[in-house]
Amino acid sequence: MAAPLTPPSASDEGSRAPKRKCTEPDYGEAITVLVGDPARPFMIHRDYVCAKSKFFEAACSTRWLEGQEKTVKLDDVDPALFARYVHWAYYDSFEAKTSVNDRQDDHKKELLDAYLLGDRLDDQALRDHAMGLLHHHLRDTSTVYPLRSWIQRLYRETAAGSLLRKLMVKYTIARRSRGEFVLSRYPREFVDELASMALAKIPIRRADCGTIDEYLEGSAEI
């Protein structure tokens, strides 16, 4: 007959690793986000996305139909970009897939995509994150000047007072090479802001208006 098992002593119990509890984290209620056209559905926990985005915080309110149905539509957002936003909501990580060693125009587009998504969803942390990457790219790398279409999109999809507009204007004044700059091809607001900031940088001194001959209709120089 087998000897009865001896219960473990107190010292034995203390030396053993405690058993891990297999419990699921409490993520709270989930919502469905329909992204793109045709729509791709995403399931995401409301508490996570609402903590990041004022847009989702408002949309998930029971005062709105979206909040009552727990479904939010974003038909103007790229599903692949939103998939990265889901990762951002959970892990605070939204790194660029391209680098300055890739095509620089592609890198700029990716960073602008991230900033505009933060603007679209009213996610200040994502806007600041994308701004930091753009600021580094423009200031600390030997990058080429952004494409005209990049600037046109920036002004088309942001509102007056945008801090990214301000960065682009300051960068243009500081880095734009001398030569032809066809202002008519750029957004009017961009041109106005360029002129305003450039004039503000001119030091105040005695006015140099040239000679009187430049303004007389009977001058030989006319």
From TrEMBL:
Every BTB domain range: 29-98
Bias (Basic and acidic residues) ranges: 13-23
Stored InterPro entries: BTB/POZ_dom, SKP1/BTB/POZ_sf
Domain of life where this protein originates: Eukaryota
Region annotation (Disordered) ranges: 1-23
Record CDD domains: BTB_POZ_ZBTB_KLHL-like
Database matches in PANTHER family: BTB DOMAIN-CONTAINING PROTEIN, BTB DOMAIN-CONTAINING PROTEIN-RELATED
Designated name of the protein: BTB domain-containing protein
